[in-house]
Amino acid sequence: MERPIDRLKRYASVDTQSNPDRDTCPSSEGQWTLAHLLEKEMAEIGLTEISLDENGYLFGTLPATTDEPVPTLGFLAHLDTSPDFPGDATTSRFVVVDGDEIELGHGRTLTAEFFPPLLDLKGEELLVTDGATLLGADDKAGIADILSAMEYLAQHPEIPHGKVRVGFTPDEEIGRGPHRFNIETFGADLAYTVDGSLLGELNYESFNACDAWVEITGESIHPGSAKNRMINAQQIAMELHGMLPAQMRPEYTENHEGFYMLSHIEGEVSRTSMEYIIRDHDRGKFEAMKEFLQNVVDFLNKKYGSRITLKIEDSYYNMADVITKHPKLMEIATTALEACGVTPDISPIRGGTDGSQLSYMGLPTANLFVGSHGAHGPYEVAVTRWMDKARDVIVEIVKRFAEE
Q1: Which residues does the annotation mark as catalytic?
Q2: Buried b vs exposed e over 151-180: b needs ≥16 C-beta within 10 Å?
Q3: Could you tell me what percent of the chain has a pLDDT over 70?
């Protein structure tokens, strides 16, 4: 059977960056290219009921090998890579760790600063970039792990298991992954996204998340005659940002701590636009953070005369509120990790996966590791042994659901 890491190297060469400026689904042609490649591979390993719909959602089935009543499990990963960095990793290469740094190329060196486990991986094989692109292990490693697990199970029909559904979705990186996902067509009772990172990572908590857009209207006039007349929208923007708690910026937070992040700003004297993302694991704190931003805007509107508009849209909520009602998802995943010799690392996601939205749509979905690190940039790596373990854990989860 083909190793997950070799699948990843092949998939990484297809540029599947999603594009937030396009309204199509998928938002990039490369996602179609990868979907058609995977559609062929799914048939080759023996999956059935393969479908690729008009929006780029690719589903398939591993038929059950037992007549016993077993929940239909789903395993999900996404086709796209982040728009934050070039995604055509055509020159990825294998290296074996023999020191405390790895020269990538293009003036970049992988060190323990960017990849802390590096110091503990001497002799291990990694897949790395040439420093000019991201690797795309987020989430092509998840795709590779899933298909390798399905191939193993297809070649071992003596292993009792229920029906397994596989799904590869578009545009997760721009928050649209579940938007056209048909829960009924997918037909799973419980699911896992394979979209985590380090060896052993298992997640059931995600952020509550929203986007906020601020529009500020100023008054422009020649600076030579501006006294008591000019109202600089950029100055108001800086004042607004300065009123938000500095300690709640992403660069100062970790674990369950929430944040305000100014993700985009542009403007001039007469008009300035700002975009924020707001995150917290605790729903009450999340709502309080939105209210605080609204209070800041209200205060500045009183000060400057109703020149600011604020629009807030929720993106997703903490999937823990759903998953805790389905304890088998975490119980079986935890025992499967231990059975594969992997220490479970049950930690909150400081972000969101498709499972954050799918759980609230009616498909409880936890998240498993893929065996990589450093997503969204040139220091992204995948570890061969870790990806092998991810495949093994998926197989073990499928087996244990049938046994229990």
Answers
A1: 80, 172
A2: bbbbeeeeeebbbbbbbbbbbbbbbbbbee
A3: 100
